[in-house]
Every structure is written in C-alpha cells, then in structure tokens.
Design goal:
This protein is an alpha+beta fold and 111 residues long. It has 2 helices and 7 strands, in the order βββαβαβββ.
C-alpha cells in the first residue's frame, strides 16, 4: 500500500486524530473490508455505517491542540510511503480519559 495523504479526523476545526492514508484505495482492501463487515454482521456485532477510510493513525490529540500549528503541519508535502502489507489485524479500540486501550480481535496472513 502507498500512503501519501496526511489528514485529521473528524475535521480541521476540531482535530482529534492525525492520520496518513492513500489517495487510491486498493480493490483488494475494499473487498477485505466488506468481507469483515459482512462476517461481523452475521455474528450480530454492531458495525458503524460510515465511509471506509483506510489509514494509519499517527497521533490522537487531546483538547487544546493548536489549530494554526496543525494547519501548517498538514500543508507539508508528505511524499509517498510504500508499506508492504503481509498481515491484517482487526483491532478493537476503547477510548478512556487516560488514553486508548487496544485489543486484538483477529490476525491473519495475506497471500
């Protein structure tokens, strides 16, 4: 996968997450995401209905992030970062006041 876009969630006015993503989503990755959603739905596990946005979270921001510094950071030319993907991990994130707690739900090797 090639990562070449730097951005924030949910938006630049109220940034909570800084991420790096790709401007092109691999059809294989979309197929994998749909397969995971389908299997979770069959198990009666809740799946949020929102647009799929493959990314790597670089940082979570606490209240008080300086928007003007963040804006300058996001305007920096990022170039491209090529990352070979050999495994997929399904991670559950629970956000607490002390930070995020992550647990692995599934790990699988790719062909």
């Amino acid at each position: 996968m090639t990562f070449n876009r730097l951005g924030v969630f949910p938006n630049a006015r109220h940034p909570k997450v800084i991420w790096i993503g790709s401007d092109k989503t691999s059809p294989d990755l979309v197929t994998l995401q749909r397969d995971i959603d389908s299997r979770l739905n069959r198990c009666d596990l809740f799946v949020k209905e929102k647009r799929f946005s493959p990314h790597i979270t670089l940082s979570r921001l606490r209240n008080g992030a300086k928007p003007d510094i963040l804006k300058k950071t996001l305007e920096i030319e990022t170039g491209s970062l090529l990352i070979p993907v050999t495994q997929v991990h399904l991670i559950k994130s629970r956000l607490h006041s002390s930070g995020a707690v992550h647990s692995s739900l599934f790990c699988g090797n790719l062909k």
